[in-house]
Amino acid sequence: MRILLLALALYLAAQPLWAQETKRTPALREQVYSQLARAQQQADTGDVAGGLAILQNVEAKLSSMNSYERAMLWNFYGYMHYGEDRIDSAIKYFAKVVEEDPIPLSLRQNTLFSLAQLAMGQERYDDTLAYLSQWRTNAGVQEQTKADVLAAQAWYQKADYDAALAPISQAIEVAEQTGYAAENWYVLQRAIYFELGQLDQVAVVLEKMVKAFNKPEYWVQLAGVYGQLGATEKQLAMLEAAYQLGFLNKGQDILNLAQSYFLAEIPFKAGSVVQKALDDGILEPNLRTLKLLAQSWVAAQETERAVAALKAAAVLSEDGELDAQRAHVLLNAEQHEAAIAAAEQALERGQLNNPGQMYLVIGMARLNLEQFNPALKAFAKAKEFEQAKRLATQWEAYTQAEQRQAETLKQLRSRS
Predict the structure, then answer these.
(1) How crowded is the C-beta side of 187, counted as CA atoms within 13 Å?
(2) Which residue among 17, 23, 57, 409 has the highest number of C-beta atoms inside a 10 angstrom radius?
């Protein structure tokens, strides 16, 4: 680190005047420079205190030094403190460098930009912007981009998102003329648009990031933004492509894909995705996951899979609602004995939104098995619940008619 700092100090000292120089810079005399170099060499051996002592001896002759020599003294002080991670002290001395006049423009410009960066690291955002403003005075058009990015970061940290947007957008626009901007520039622009609530622009930035960097998290984030914008088809397309590319390795991402399939009325794919994630250990077989799995298989009319998922989810539930759903699925599949068992289990577990429905299921299953008296008992029980009363009365009448018809047929057969 210190060798590099010394090299930079020597480089700055040797730089010719920039084309913009309007004042003649005095020379850096050999006797001053040799003392500065000796101080740096002392520090390089690990004796920073000794190096600083040499600089203090040089500072004692400050009145006989010209502006360039004083600037280089402060410069060496600054680098030594920076090397020891004393950033506040480094900033103090680098600030003294740019107060000297005249000095080489290269030294002034490099020091001002370093001050801006150091102030940023110390969360001194107003100072960062002030140093950048001074730096811009003598900077060329092609050099402005790096200052734009730093200024945008400072404005963002100050929560002035409107002020932050212009410089980062300008920097990205310049960079995109020859390709893509740096990844962290897009990250900052995306964050600014997000804070401004401009989700459509967040999507635009993420589209660029997906294309340029192809990172899994950008695919997932873009899908999420599409969802927030109501572009559900685009959301599903992004998630499906990411899944096929192997980018969805987190449980929540898999659930998002499954839910997108479900909402798009593609329940078989929803169930398949969840089941594979469970088999692969990406998803935990918790109540939320098993409910989604069951709903997917029910919608896909995959009876056996739906029943298995509902049964597994019911074990984790505190009420009988999932057993009630299982009873309905089994009744529709004409698995009457199993439907009765599931309905009875739902009633036993309790806390049902509509317990009368379970007595209706039992009654209909008993009716289909031609167990008329048990069916009538179940419908009579269902009539005790207001939500099921009307249907229970209708099924009761129908069952009585079926029972009479069955008895008539039985009598006719016995006579023949």
Answers:
(1) 8
(2) 17
CA–CA distance, 145 with 271 (Å, rounded to integer): 50
Is the CB of residue 66 less than 8 Å from the CB of residue 85?
Answer: no
Query: What tens digit of pLDDT does each residue of 27-74 get?
Result: 999 999 999 999 989 988 889 999 999 999 999 999 999 999 999 999
Distances in whole angstroms, Cα of residue 327 to Cα of each of 1, 265, 334, 345, 365: 73, 23, 10, 9, 10
Token pair belonging to 146? 């790096």
Q: What is the mean pLDDT of the chain?
A: 92
Total number of domains constituting the chain: 2
DSSP 177: T
Check if the beta carbon of residue 283 is closer than 8 Å to that of residue 317: no
| pLDDT computed for residue 22 by the predictor | 52
pLDDT in tens, 112-141: 999 999 999 999 999 999 999 999 999 887
Residues 21 and 155 in one domain: no
The two three-digit tokens of residue 182, written as one number: 């740096």
Question: Cα(286)–Cα(297) distance, rounded to whole angstroms?
Answer: 17
Say if residues 365 and 331 touch (Cβ distance below 8 Å).
yes
CA angle (355, 388, 293) in 5-degree steps: 50
Domain that holds residue 121: 1-139
State the alpha helices, DSSP H only, in 122-160.
125-136, 144-157
- What secondary structure letter does DSSP report for 178? S
Closest by CA to 208, choosing from 224, 221, 195, is 221
- The arithmetic mean of pLDDT across residues 173-179, rounded, is 92
Other CB atoms within 10 A of residue 101 CB: 11
Q: Is 372 helix (H, G, I), strand (E, B) or coil?
A: helix
Which residue shows structure tokens 């090299």?
Answer: 7
